[in-house]
Protein 1
Amino acid sequence: MTELIEKWTDLTAGATPEEADPVVLECARLLAAEPDGEQAVLLTFGLVGMARYVLGRRGADVERAAVDALAAAAAAMDEQVLQDGGCGHEVHPYTDSLEEWETDVDGLFHAPDVEIPFDEWDEAEACPRNAAGWARTAADVILPGSTDGIPEIVPEDHQRYIRSLGSVLNDYPNGDPFWDLDIHAAPPSDLSRAALAGYVVVAHANCWYAGSGRIRQRSLLDDMIEGLESVLPLLPDEACAHEDGEHPALRSGSDEQASEGIHLQSPGGRAVLREEHADGYGASLGAWTCTTFLRALAVEARDHLREAVDRLFGTRETAHLDPVYLRPDGRLDIGPLSERHVPFKDETASEEAALWAARRYEQIGPDGPALDRTVLLLLMGTAADSLELSYGIAREILGILRTAATTLPTGACDHADGHASGRERTSDHLARIAHLYAPDADPASGPDSGQGFRDEALTCPAHLVEVVTKGIAEIEEQFEEELEAEEERAG
């Protein structure tokens, strides 16, 4: 056995099939020949240790041979313990490993080390039932669903991921959602079949929230796109043998999908999914890990994230809004333009209206109509203060506001009581701006909105400086990290 053990321990995940396959096949042959023999425990852990290599040999003979030998050993050793009247151990170390499982590849490192002399092993470690537990676990890592009898133990870390993603995807994050999503952005190294499936399913569940605009750091979306593209070579573009309706339906909410994706990433979690399938609901592990199914999810998630990057961080077209916010005579159609700046009505339309107003201000230039420039500045200030702007739009508006700040006159004014009321609602403030531009369009607001501040205070140069300064500060505070990162890249 010493010579065999040396071969097992010399085998690494990156070994060539020419040198590694014969070693694995010989161990599997010996174990399958005597699955409850004198050396069965050592042979089992020899195969468990080489499972990390077998993960890279999907579809090869060595994969099937290892799984069949491990399954035979698990059944034989359990039967042996049963015939002996039990082992006397209340617990076995493999269950502790299931509770502490992180990834499939890392989890296999918790198995007993065959290089340590067998007589130095802990009694429970050397127990055939512990070896049987590890045999089932390793077989499931290599080929999900190939063996039964794995305890439904979901690791505590995975339970925490499920809770945190559930909060985020239901739009009630407990902290910064960036970090809850970022930990799942890139796939783990040396992916097992099920870990690959879990990664793709979680990424698909997360992509809708990540692309919604609530995440303001572009780096997360870029990392998710890069991660999805990195696994596409493992997901061939081909048909599969599954019938209609066998693939997971994914009709549930994103939080449920994320939970299923996390379950796929541990043997105990997969046992939960397997039990659900046996009870008549949920897909089989074979369907969950189907590369045809996973490729469709990965491509859909990647394409959605790409579109979101363009929408949230790229240059947005606004020329099509000219007929909406300009009258035929070239004046602003202030009613629709101001109404679109009211928060929470239609976020996309609102931020596009804000961007149109900023570009219009820049377009007409310093020689443009003074009232138009004043109103557009006021709308930019309102947008910076009240709207949920995506970074790409906020960055462009910030640049225009910074330029405007260099051209506005400074100095004191006669408005000792200030220029606006802290109690004024955004909708009322926008109505005052609309009335300022087109008094006949909103006669109900009159020259005084009822807040004690006349409309003429809106046009005060000192007030405009306040509006621009506040707008700049609001955007710089909201997007401090993104602006600093962009400056570092440019510098």
Protein 2
Amino acid sequence: MDRPGHRPTGRATAACAPGTASVRGAVALAAPLAVGLAAHHPEYGALASLGALLGVLTATAPARRTRLRTVTASLLLGAAGAALGGLVDGRGWTAFGVLTALALLSGMLSALGRAASLAGLMLLLNAVLAAGVPPTGTPWWLPPLLVAGGGLLILALCLPTGLPGTGARRARAAAPAPPAPPAPRRPRAFLASPAPWCYGLRLALCVGLAQALVVLMPYERAYWVPVTVVFVLKPDLGSVFSRALLRAAGTATGLLVAVAVFAAVPRGWWELPVLMLLGALLPVLSRRGYGFQTAAVTPVILLLSDLGNLEGAELVGQLMQDSLIGCAIALVVGHLLWPGARRSRSDAGRTADVAASGEASVRPRPLPVGR
């Protein structure tokens, strides 16, 4: 999906061919897990594959240079988020405070443009996952390194290949490229603007509420509640109302896929072809809309996060419940009750069209920042 107001051309589409992205996704998800299985540490391979998954989600820009910049920023902040989340894993209200502060920062970064917004998303998402996934006995510093390793794999796969004709293809791809974004504002002007604070506080409030439920819930893996809030409420990713509906529908579909995989596929090496297939489908389905993307991402996260605990299909009902709770928090607190969130009455009017066509923007739109 493309930036609002920018009409893609055939050349721009060719710059980021679906086949190339699908091959990149298949290799990036399966290779780290294969190494982990060969080393008899599948949980390590799963963490690296998770880092690669987050890289696949950010490596979507048509222009190679933009893609590399976005993946690099997401890699660095994603590793930092994983480190911070690992440090507060199992620490209850301390984790609540840290994740709420990171949500504030992530929301504010949304005002700086696409690359900063996706990097902020990876910072917060990795922190929530690292703080919520049940521990596997690894030292706190190892998961961030493994996640970063998966991200480096994506970065390497995004580098120029040097194949014949590559330069010509890059020149053709750059021809319809949009103008460069305006120079970033000074930090003082950015911090004095109300827009970044509004978006940051809105996300922080909802993530903090979700994380409070994580502390109070009497079972593990309640991290799916804040994960859902992060994906639905990120303020520059489109309509909260439609994304909440698509998130619920996509999660339900993805969980059904995961149930089928758990029932039919033996654990271990046999899961590699499944991950390769899902990795290849992810870029294709992401272009179809947010609901399709969620349906592809959900079984991947469930398969990877379960390798260290082997709970399988027992998690499905809980994850669906947690996803619905997260959607409810985003809708009620972040949309219905938040001042000014409903000024655009077109959200509800567009929902029928979004649900019918399956189209929901997954590319961040730059947010206005006052002078």
